[in-house]
Amino acid sequence: MADTANRIKTFAVLGDPIGHSISPAMHNAAFEALGMPCEYRAFRVRLSDLRDAIHGARALGFGGLNLTIPLKEEALKYVDPDPIAARIGAVNTIDFASEITGHNTDGIGALRALDSAGVDIAGRNIVIIGAGGAARAIAFQFAYIGGMIVIANRTQERADRLARDVTIGLLELEKRPVVRSIGLAGLASEIADAEILINATSVGMHPHPDATPVSSDLLHSGLTVFDIVYNPLRTKLLSDAELRGATVIDGVRMLVHQGAEAFRIWTGREPPADVMLEAALRGLENRS
Ligand code: ATR
């Protein structure tokens, strides 16, 4: 491993594009709050350069990496994934403590976002809308800890495939997941019985803030509604949910907690989640 002349440990997020990443602000605020001699930077890395970038970072003595679009799936080829990352099929955190280990903290980030709002997952009826990368991470993690999950997606075959992958993947880990899949037409009756509703699609994201994945008349006061979209912070889905008396949780909390979990993996220290949230909110404000 390379010697760092200035004894500052470097961490980084890699992606393409990467200019708007909030991660440097979040992690640098955490390092500063804990008085740790570390820095966190963002690098634009093309898919074809990912292998070299990961090995280069390790050779330079970096403490760890985060990965974002479009590198998360490709990274599986170059790391030793932990069991959850392997089954999700994507890596967002790499640590170099021993070898090159890949983790996926997106699902844990969502879990802690709900947990920090006092919402339990185990044994709860949960509807996840979406079957892309984010939905995949959340479905695996929530099924792993005993949520009863319905995956609803515009393209139902993708939902079916995800439900099947979660079932097979978790049976291999000796869990007994409860997962079903439906098309969006089946949402009404499922939401009526649900306790937690998660939007894991990009619907409602800038530049289409008036879009929502769920008609407001389906929302009710027995629901906790969590939206992974954080731009805007208050999506139409969350505004509608609030008007219907539901509890709402915004997407920046998942962003913060996936980062906090990476911080915990790299440093072994308890991440200052409040400091990270404040930095993320400030970063988002400056961005808009
Ligand atoms: P990510 O990895 O960020 O989750 P993705 O793999 O492109 O991104 O998945 C996006 C998700 O949002 C998918 O579930 C997609 O539905 P399809 O599988 O049918 O494409 C969903 N999505 C995107 N735009 C949508 C829209 N206008 N209405 C409903 N679902 C939408």
Secondary structure elements and pairings:
Blueprint: E1 9-15, H1 23-33, E2 38-44, H2 50-59, E3 64-67, E4 80-81, H3 83-88, E5 93-95, E6 101-103, H4 106-115, E7 125-129, H5 133-144, E8 148-153, H6 156-172, E9 178-183, H7 187-193, E10 196-199, E11 224-227, H8 236-243, E12 247-249, H9 252-267, H10 273-287
Parallel strand pairs: 1-2, 1-3, 4-6, 7-8, 7-10, 8-9, 10-11, 11-12
Antiparallel strand pairs: 3-5, 5-6
Helix pairs in contact: 1-10, 4-5, 4-9, 5-6, 9-10
The structure holds 2'-monophosphoadenosine-5'-diphosphate.
Structure description:
This protein has about 290 residues and is an alpha/beta fold. It has 2 domains: about 5-105 and about 255-285, Leucine Dehydrogenase, chain A, domain 1 (Rossmann fold); about 105-250, NAD(P)-binding Rossmann-like Domain (Rossmann fold, 3-Layer(aba) Sandwich). The protein is built from 10 helices and 12 strands. The strands form 2 sheets. The protein has a 6-stranded mixed beta sheet, with helices on both faces. It has a 6-stranded parallel beta sheet with strand order 9-8-7-10-11-12, sandwiched between helices. α8 (about 235-245) links the parallel β11 and β12 (about 245-250). α1 (about 25-35) runs antiparallel to α10 (about 275-285) and α9 (about 250-265) crosses α10. The radius of gyration is 19 Å and the shape is globular. The mean pLDDT is about 95. 2'-monophosphoadenosine-5'-diphosphate (ATR) binds near residues 132 and 153.
The H-and-E topology, N to C, reads as: EHEHEEHEEHEHEHEHEEHEHH
First-last Cα distance: 40 Å
Low-pLDDT runs of 5+ residues are none
Q: List each distinct ligand once.
A: 2'-monophosphoadenosine-5'-diphosphate
